[in-house]
Amino acid sequence: MQVPLLDLKAQYQTIKEECLQVTKEIYESQYFILGPYVEALEKEIARYCSTKYAVGVSSGTDALLLSLMAAKIGYGDRVITTPYTFFATAGVVSRMGAIPVFVDIEPDTYNISPARLEAVIQAMPDAIRKTVKAIIPVHLYGQCADMDAVAEIARKNNLVVIEDAAQAIGSEYKGRRAGSMGNFGCFSFFPSKNLGGFGDGGIITTNSETDYENLKILRVHGGHPKYYHSQIGGNFRLDALQAAIVSIKLKYLDQWTKARQKNAKMYKALFEEAGLSHAVTVPFEKENRHIYNQFVISVVEGRDSLKEFLIANHVGCEIYYPVPLHLQECFADLEYSPGDFPVAEHAAEHTLALPVYPELSEDQIRYGVDQIREFFR
Ligand SMILES: *Cc1c(COP(=O)(O)O)cnc(C)c1O
Known about the structure:
Blueprint: H1 8-29, H2 36-48, E1 53-57, H3 60-70, E2 78-81, H4 88-95, E3 99-102, H5 114-123, H6 126-129, E4 132-135, H7 147-157, E5 160-164, E6 172-173, E7 176-177, E8 184-188, E9 202-206, H8 209-218, H9 240-250, H10 253-273, E10 280-281, E11 295-299, H11 303-312, H12 342-350, E12 351-354, H13 362-376
Parallel strand pairs: 2-3, 2-4, 4-5, 5-8
Antiparallel strand pairs: 1-9, 6-7, 8-9, 10-11, 11-12
Helix pairs in contact: 1-9, 2-9, 3-4, 3-8, 10-13
């Protein structure tokens, strides 16, 4: 049996006619950048995320970068985030000339630890603490970070909150949607995300009218009116084609999320049944609604050989992320060392993502768990 990590072709078959129809309309119109399809998507995403506004942008990375620009983060400022996330979360901070400050994660959710966050800020000398301007909590794998605690610390320290919700559209924290709790919510439409386009794309949500207007100006080089620049922006525009495809997919997102949650539940039952709890830890569902953008297990021993075994037996799997950001070569000048963030380092050495996409069949899930049981025998 073949169990790919992701099967986008299966999903495409279910929406093919709608996609071809809208693509044809856009080709006929020859209107490719921003415009009515982008505006329609912005309204739909704002509604879906319970925010007042949304601004379509060129990628999830650019959503983060543009949010930092709108927050006026610049040279010498510090921005707090976690070392256990996709590179972009911290890469954008350095690209603004600012300094990423890492805070370790919680062992059960892999999200930023509020207790560590508080401790890191407390330990800073006053002069350094004054340079901390923002925090980027990441809702990793589709589960929200502890946003009440993050918001409280942000309020006390006057920090802008930028949610990295690239893996978390539709996930909730105490009934509130990802992207609606910070000053900015950043989403990615990279094809492999749970709501993906047919190319790169992203969106920023916000409840602030001022930020909304400013994001739209920065998205087009900061020109307002056109060709008159009081600020330096960039080309962060979203394509009409991507917006139209994402709009189509958004109609099915809740249905797909339910299928992901059902798959996650089935994995958990099968792992339990297989008596694998000594060898494998399944995801801990702390916040309700976890949307399972990824289903990530922690392997007590032998993660790398398990990965090889699964791939040899046609079960797709992936390590997100093998090197925590504080140990990346490009961040050597930040002067972190191995051992600085033990929980993130442990996660990088033990976690493995299994297929959880909506179209996955019960037989495929069973086959995957059987292979894992086989490995540990
Ligand atoms: C995918 C991802 C991004 C970047 O999104 P792109 O659209 O690929 O630029 C940022 N942060 C996290 C946590 C992601 O998973």
